[in-house]
Amino acid sequence: ETGVTQSPTHLIKTRGQQVTLRCSSQSGHNTVSWYQQALGQGPQFIFQYYREEENGRGNFPPRFSGLQFPNYSSELNVNALELDDSALYLCASSLLVGGRYSGNTIYFGEGSWLTVV
Amino acid sequence: DAKTTQPPSMDCAEGRAANLPCNHSTISGNEYVYWYRQIHSQGPQYIIHGLKNNETNEMASLIITEDRKSSTLILPHATLRDTAVYYCIVRVVNYGGSQGNLIFGKGTKLSVKP
User: Fold this and answer.
1) pLDDT per position as a tens digit, A15-54
2) Separation between Cα atoms, residue B77 and residue B80, nearest integer Å
3) Are strands B45-50 and A44-50 parallel, antiparallel or unpaired?
């Protein structure tokens, strides 16, 4: 148990629709990152939120967006879903101190499986 | 791109030590070596990390060479439940933003056999 919880665990959407995935970070952590893992691949970094602002982004288009709330929980929103968006979406939490990691560990949730048909 | 190289697969007999190698020849002085594993359809599980000294915890030991260009993760007594994909990752520390995040490669699929 990492204390990082995600919902929903599985969902099916139709191409063109929008989806919102949710994440609660581990107690004491102030930073949330999102990763996408396609079948047979390693997780790919989407973006990170710190102090309710995006604080780093990977190579993903703007239709991938997010939010972080004052309690450090986070949402991942994906608009105009495409078939290739079918994947496991992972949330990870960590602690930034003064904006720096200082070697702290990143802990992952169990993920949300998204299927786009 | 991932900065590490790992064998795609390894087998290990149950009860024996599993030694998983990782090459990170371009590692920088401010990068730690992290190991995660992922059991099928679950989120990655943190195992251990280190900078330059060998590290040990309740799950595993991490041996880093003196030049820091390679490392070995050791599971001392592998069980069937250790069957998973193991990822070796180098990660910048003391830095915020995307450079502090994890860049996963394809990892090593470890199969522990009875």
Assistant:
1) 999 999 999 998 888 899 999 999 989 999 999 998 899 9
2) 10
3) unpaired
